[in-house]
Amino acid sequence: MSAPNIETIVSLSKRRGFVYPASDIYGGLGSSWDYGPLGVELANNIKQSWWNWVVYERDDIEGLDSSIILNRNVWKYSGHETTFSDPLVDCRDCKTRLREDKLDKNDEGKLVCSNCGSTNLTEPRAFNLMFRTTVGAASAEDDPTALAYLRPETAQGIFVNFKNVLDTSRRKLPFGIAQIGKAFRNEVTPGNFIFRTREFEQMEIEYFCRPEDAPRVHQEWIDGFDEWLQSLGISSANLKHYEQTREELAHYSERTVDILYRFFPEREDEAKQWDELMGIANRTDYDLRVHSKKPEDAEGNRLNPDSTEDLSYFDPQTNERFYPYIIEPSTGVNRTLLAVMMDAYTERTNDKGETRVILKLKPEMAPIKVAVLPLAKNKPEIVEMARKIKKELQPSMRAVYDDTGGIGKLYARQDEIGTPFCVTVDHQSLEDNAVTVRDRDTWEQARVSIDQLRSHLEVRVSS
Ligand code: GAP
Asked: How far is CA 299 from each of CA 296, 310, 384, rounded to the nearest angstrom?
């Protein structure tokens, strides 16, 4: 089972502290969201899993953390200043602003307003999605020399550091650079909770290889990400691939495969149930070329007169100099988190006929791994023992102590937030130095000696 719709996750998130609407006490700010105590843990677990997999478990990828505000020339030569835009139309009847490429057509082939159904729309015009800012305290708002942008992708910070990483890490092709960080886009139609927001987080790999190896490397990353997403607990039945058409490809891409997730299972039309979770592009040698000082046009003029470096690569084995091709798997943290929550969402009816929500997260993803619950909170010895157990578990796994309700209520609360194990301390624990470990998914209980508890849980949390 998975969530019937995104709304179910929105209310669970707000109720339990995964995600809140941003600036809520001032009426919010369109499509901005804050991660609460559980959301930040879940997002950190996703990022840690990605980083472990791409940086630590492989031997060919280095990490990076580049700036959010870069020299404006980065966006000039990357092509973002001229092409990073959405086609915008206004509905003349209901005044809604819409993205032309997302609208349906009627039987006569005319675009239809998704808000009121009218076909009375303006001509499309390009709207650049980059957020503008000015740099320097003395700068006037309209001073073009002070203009800068908040990065709309983390990728460019990697390309302009290609030579730094290459020289300092003494790498040879193929190798990659990985980065996790915020990106900003002034989206025309943000929405669907954290699916499309104006501020979001990306996890990007730029993998540099020889041009002739690029198609194979591309496919390896597509297959690799299929597996990684499933390792987070996302079911393969809710994932599929989409090959972008020539018209859809970004200006830098030769081939892009999107991995889609079934974000909208409630939609009748099966084709409309799916949307992009991440994209894996073959960016060719476009990026390293455009940021290099060397390439010239037919008349011998430098194509990039502002760059001070040539970002080509010298292969000592073949004595060749060339611009590496780049394979780019680009994953959104927010969309991954939403997919992980939707896939883990389950309902179960107990003996009394009450329906309970259980978030069947993989233990690795769970914000809290174990909750320690005293069965009698008015008995100081039991409370003391439970608090001590929590403290002893904490260095090896995220543990909490909770005595704010009856045991049934405490179990239900932990099930709903995905805690895989609850440890109950009772009167008998004082006699036999053992506790009850309850499993979130089966509701089965096992008696475990306190001396063995930590290793018992470590095995189960990592399985
Ligand atoms: N560097 C390539 C790049 O940025 P993209 O397809 O525009 O490619 C990559 O973005 C991923 O970033 C998307 O697949 C999605 O997961 C995430 N993403 C993009 N725009 C987003 C938005 N407005 N809100 C949330 N996530 C977004």
From this structure: 8, 19, 81
Closest ligand 1 atom to Cα of 276: 14
Which of 381, 385, 386 has the alpha carbon at shortest distance from 404?
386
**418: region left, alpha or beta (phi > 0 left; psi from -120 to 50 alpha):** left
Closest residue by CA, ligand 1 atom 12:
332
CA of residue 331 to ligand 1 center, whole Å: 7
Ligand 1 — pocket residues by CB below 6 A? Answer: 153, 155, 185, 187, 196-197, 200, 202, 204, 276-279, 328, 330-332, 334-335
Residue pLDDT, tens place only, 324-369: 999 999 999 999 999 999 999 999 988 888 899 999 999 999 999 9
Question: Whose alpha carbon is nearest atom 14 of ligand 1?
Answer: 278
> If you write DSSP's letter for every residue of 293-357 in order, what string do you get?
S--B-TTS-BS-TT------EEETTTTEEEPPEEEEEEEEHHHHHHHHHHHHEEEEE-TTS-EEE
Q: In the chain, what percentage of residues exceed pLDDT 70?
A: 99
Q: What is the DSSP letter of 45?
A: H
Q: What is the radius of gyration, based on Cα positions, of the chain?
A: 26
Q: Extract the tokens encoding 228.
A: 């990684």
Give yes or no for a cis peptide into 174 (omega within 30° of 0): yes
The two three-digit tokens of residue 100, written as one number: 């032309």
Contact 97, 121 (CB under 8 A): no
